[in-house]
Amino acid sequence: MALEGGQVVGTCRLIFRGRTARLGRLAVEPAARRQGVGAAILREAAEAARRAEADRIELHAQTYALELYEREGYAGHGSEFVEEGIPHLAMRKSLV
User: Fold this and answer.
1) Could you tell me where the DSSP H helices lie in 1-96?
2) Parallel, antiparallel, or unpaired: how do β-strands 2-4 and 20-28 relate?
3) In contact, 24 and 8? CB cutoff 8 Å
4) Which of 15, 71, 93, 95 has the CA that lies 20 to 30 A from 51?
């Protein structure tokens, strides 16, 4: 969770399945976007996954945000697909 002035401006969810962490529901308040909040959340999620001894993180990225994930070391795999009416790409990042 990311806080600014005591208010939540960003969050995500990590679910663990064996040694794989599944990141989902990354959300940043519109006013806080493009200020590094999403990147900071991704870095903290990776650290939390490492502490839990996960080997990798997987996620479904909305295609408009691919650059954010790529800058943080995630790589796409497979073909683009539609989830909840929004184009996505499966991505993963090794933690080892």
Assistant:
1) 37-51, 66-71
2) unpaired
3) no
4) 71
pLDDT tens digit sequence for 21-60: 999 999 999 999 999 999 999 999 999 999 999 999 999 9
Do residues 89 and 51 make contact, with C-beta atoms less than 8 angstroms apart?
Answer: no
pLDDT of residue 1: 85
- In this structure, the dihedral spanned by the alpha carbons of residues 32, 36, 40 and 43, taken in order and rounded to 10 degrees, is 140
Lookup result for tokens 């870095």: 43
Cα–Cα distances in Å, from 35 out to 20, 28, 39, 72, 94? 28, 10, 9, 15, 25
β-pairing, 86-94 vs 56-62, is antiparallel
